[in-house]
Design goal:
By secondary structure, the protein is mainly beta. It has helices at about 5-25, 90-95, and strands at about 40-50, 65-70, 75-85, 115-120, 125-130, 140-150, 155-165, 165-170, 180, 185-195, 210-220, 220-225, 230, 235-240, 255-260, 265-275, 275. The radius of gyration is 30 Å and the shape is elongated. The relative contact order is 0.15.
Amino acid sequence: MNRAGIRLRITLLVAITLIALPCLAVPAETTPSQDQRLNEPKPTTILVRIVAHGSMVLGKDVGGARVTITDVASGQILASGLQQGDAGDQNQIMRTPRLMGEPLYSSRASASFTTILKLPHPVLVDIAAEGPLGYPAATQRATTRTWLIPGQDMTNDGIVLALYGYIVKIEQPQSGESLIAKDDVTLRATIRTLSGALVRPHGDWDSRKIQIYGEVLIGDRIVERLQMFYGSDNTGFEAPFFVPSLTDALDGVTIRVVAADPASGNIGVGQAMFPVLSERLPQKRRTP
């Protein structure tokens, strides 16, 4: 090979090397802090947000949620408190398209729990959420395990925990009311997501996609299953039923309402016990 060919090969090798070197030497986008106080605890802001699965944030309308952060290794509770605030902007959360990584719950003000922990080293924690606190019968619980790193704040949407379920409330008959044997009674119930949003036809939480039904029980035995429809007065879901006879229901009856969405995994149950009284007897006519 002549000298010109050798020089050409050397030039090409140098060019290839210069092109490859930047790729090999690219540093991480963020480099570790050069803080010399490496062993001192660093204040670290941790934001936790509890949401209803497929819905809004658990805020003051439903009593908020309780958050507990526990050190896995020691079992020590590092922080505990209540999430309070607003449920968030429904239009932003439920209807606005967004790219992965864009804020979902923090683009507008919404409830959250925030704490500042002084962390000397990475800590593996369990974060537990419980709510909605305003509806004990519908309260659900979720836990996630994650690392917390000194000085690495968790803000914006924060660490999000989703709770599954519905708030199912029997509105009629009213709690504590006695039923009259063989009476024709209307069962009425409201159904909400755990954030307090109403479930109804054609809404963001469309009841047409949810199985909703009632049951009349004597003891543990179902004596009637009721198909429920959304009332024309927009007060909830309703169905008529006959109260069992006093002979059959000496200890009263239990009314249960179930709402289940197999697609989302949200399920809610509401039930109440009602005593049964003697049936009404027809009044005798007075003779003049």
